[in-house]
Amino acid sequence: MIGQQIASSIERRSGVSLWRQIADQILHSIAIGDFAENAALPPEIALAERYGVNRHTVRSAIAALVQDGVLRAEQGRGTFVLSRKRLSYPIGARTRFSEGLQGQATERRSVLLESAVEPASRRVAEGLGLAKGSNVIRLETRGEADGQPVSRASGWFDAKRFEGIEAAIAETGSVTASLQRFGISDYLRQSTVLSARHADAADLADLDLQSGAIVLVTVAVNVTPDGQPIQFAETRFPAERVELKLSAR
Amino acid sequence: MIGQQIASSIERRSGVSLWRQIADQILHSIAIGDFAENAALPPEIALAERYGVNRHTVRSAIAALVQDGVLRAEQGRGTFVLSRKRLSYPIGARTRFSEGLQGQATERRSVLLESAVEPASRRVAEGLGLAKGSNVIRLETRGEADGQPVSRASGWFDAKRFEGIEAAIAETGSVTASLQRFGISDYLRQSTVLSARHADAADLADLDLQSGAIVLVTVAVNVTPDGQPIQFAETRFPAERVELKLSAR
DNA sequence: TATAATTGTCTACATCATTATACAAATTCG
DNA sequence: CGAATTTGTATAATGATGTAGACAATTATA
C-alpha cells in the first residue's frame, strides 16, 4: 500500500471485481513511483501470486490498463509502463483553469458542452444566495490538457446578474474574460468541499473513462473580493489522471 | 447527478457491480440533500425503474447501506434515511486533527495502531529531505469521531531528530503535544496532494468499511514555520463518511 | 540453436451478479 | 375489515467474473 511495502490485499464479494481492484492498485503504484516510466511490470504469474488470484484475473486488470493507454504488453518481453504520473492540478483561492497546469501540459483548453437557463435547485440557490427557483444559467464544460479530458464542470450563475454570459463564454472560451464584461475583474474561491465517488455514465463518456473509474469532486463558490457570490460550481476530476495540489500560502 | 436533475445512469460490465454503483449514488443523493434525514426513500420498484435494473439489484444496494447504518428498512412501511450528511473535515495550513470537527462530533480521538523504525522509502525520504534509506519512525494512527473511524494515517518522522516520539505519542495521544517535547511549538502544512482510490483490505478493516468503498487520500508534508520538514504523512478518509473542506483564507 | 521466461489463446467449470416471477408479511388508509 | 402499498423470501434461469490447466507464440539469453 505504501512505498516499498508489501502489496495490499484484495477484497472478495465487495461489489468491485478483483480485476478492477488490481488495476486500481497498479495505477496507484505507478502514481507513487513504484514503477518508473518504461519500466517492466512484474510478470503476470508474480502479480497473481502477490495478489492471491489467478493469472487470468491479473490479465483482465492489465487488459483494462492497456485499453486505457497506461500499459503496453509485448508478447515474450513483458508489460511496460507507458504513462507518466498523474497531472497535478493546483487548487487555491485564485486558481483559474488555464493557469496552473503550465509545464505539465503544452496545450490546455476548456470546451463548452452545453448551456441552459433553469430554476435553481436548493443546493445551487443556497450557494449563490438566491431564492430557490430563481433562474440560473447552467454551463457544462470540459477541461482538456494535451487533448485528454482532465475535468468536467457544472457551473451556475445568477441569470439576472449575468444575462448572456453563455454567449460570451462560447465566444471567448474563457470564464475569466467573460466575467470582465460584467464588471468583474477579480474573483476568489470562497469555499471548496472535496469528495470522491464512482463516475456516473455521463461523466464516463465526457471524460473518456473506463467504467468503474473514480472521480474527485470539488464543490466551490466563487465570490468577488467583497464576498458577493458569483458562481457555484461542481467539478469532477478523473482520479486516475489527476491529483489536486493544495497551494501552500 | 446534480441536485434536482434526473438520476444518473448506471454502467454495466464495468468491474463495479450495479448494486454498488446504485449504493454509491443513493449515498451521494443523501449527501447533497436530495433525501433529508428520516425521509423515506422511493419504493424499491420505483428505484429499480429509475436505474433500469431489477428490484433485487436495488435491494442489494439497500442491504449494503442498511448494513452500513445509513438506511433502515421497515417491512410494509418503507426505507428511511438514518444518517446525517458527511462529516466535513477542514483542511488548511494549520489543521490539527483534534480541532476542526467541533460541533459535528462530541467525542474525538486519535488511536495509535502501530509504530516502527525502518529505512525510508524513496517517497518518504524525498518528502522529509533525507537520504534514501535513512531511518524513519513510522506511526500508524486512526482518527475517530463519536466512536466511528473517520481517518487512517501513516506518518513518518526523521528517526534521528525525533527519537522516542512514538512513546510520547502513545503516552499523550497527541502529535502536537509530543512535538513540543522536541522543541517544536508550531508547524504548518507545507503541501497537500489529494487523490482518491478504492480502499485496500487493510484500510477496509481499520476504517470499518464495506468492501469496495472509496477513500480520499491526502499526502502532506508538515514543516516548521521556517520551512524545515518535520513529518511526511499519508491520510485516508472514507469518502462515504467524510468530505474535506478547504478553508478560505 | 536450444532453453527459459513471458505474454496470448483456448476450454471447462465454479461462483457471483442480475433478471424474472411468484407469493408472504407488515403497514397504511379508506 | 378489505384493498393497496411496500418490504421480505423463495426459486429458477442467465450472464459476468474468477479458477484451473494446457499449450502456442514471441523474445531474450546461455
From TrEMBL, chains A, B:
NCBIfam families: C_P_lyase_phnF. GO terms for biological process: negative regulation of DNA-templated transcription. SUPFAM superfamilies: Chorismate lyase-like (SSF64288), Winged helix' DNA-binding domain (SSF46785). Gene3D superfamilies: Chorismate lyase-like, Winged helix-like DNA-binding domain superfamily/Winged helix DNA-binding domain. CDD domains: WHTH_GntR (cd07377). It holds the Pfam family GntR. GO terms for molecular function: DNA binding; DNA-binding transcription factor activity. Transmembrane segments: none annotated. Residues 16-84 form the HTH gntR-type domain. Keywords: DNA-binding, Transcription, Transcription regulation. InterPro entries: Bact_HTH_transcr_reg, Chorismate_lyase_/UTRA_dom_sf, CP_lyase_PhnF, Tscrpt_reg_HTH_GntR, UTRA, WH-like_DNA-bd_sf, WH_DNA-bd_sf. This is Phosphonate metabolism transcriptional regulator PhnF.
